[in-house]
TrEMBL record:
Signal peptide as annotated in the record: none
GO molecular function: glutathione transferase activity
Domain (GST N-terminal) ranges: 1-79
Entry protein name: Glutathione S-transferase
Organism of origin: Paramesorhizobium deserti
Superkingdom to which the source organism belongs: Bacteria
Amino acid sequence: MLTLFHHPMSTGSRYARLILNEYGVEAELIEEKPWARRKEFLALNPAGTLPVLLAENDVPIVGPTVIAEYLDETRGALKRNRRLLPESPIERAEVRRLVDWFLGKLDNEVTRHIARERVFKLQMAAEQGGSSPDSTAIRAARSNIRQHMKYVDWLAATRDWLGGAQPSYADMAAAAAISILDYLGEIEWADHPAARDWYSRVKSRPSFRPLLSDRVRGLSPVAHYGDLDF
């Protein structure tokens, strides 16, 4: 069995979990607090970042996009129409562009800052950076949500799935970032009907069910988080 070091409020970790679930790959989940900088974890990934997948023979595969490519090559290639990367090089390029957008731009401009201020700082000791949330950082991140959601809304309204005709890594990456914001009640879904319909379809996939069970100690999700039709 594979092992995934993750955190439930990490976009990259959720992305890796969704791909594992989509491909029906069993993996032991170990929740890691990267700010703790455990030496055993740093031995696997000196950068101290998540996620890390211990693959066959306990070889560490580090980072969400690297894990995704590894799983595509070792599992996805056998899934035919359930593969999460298209066969066409042009279509694959578009999916990879969107993955970079959601794991990079959206996460860097919104999700990781909201998660850090509202979740991580409350779990950190003072010497690790723990403190009260920085309202300025939260406002800055929130100011970027609307534009990102407008883009998701446009993609969802003009395509069957965000990356094209079939579910792909693009949908998994977007759902990973957005689901954290949704857990924290940061998205005004009424303003983004096409994105809401797309997200409802993603939430309804069996691969998403374990994420809907995630709970952060001392911080319950919004009431609709677990609802498939919200």
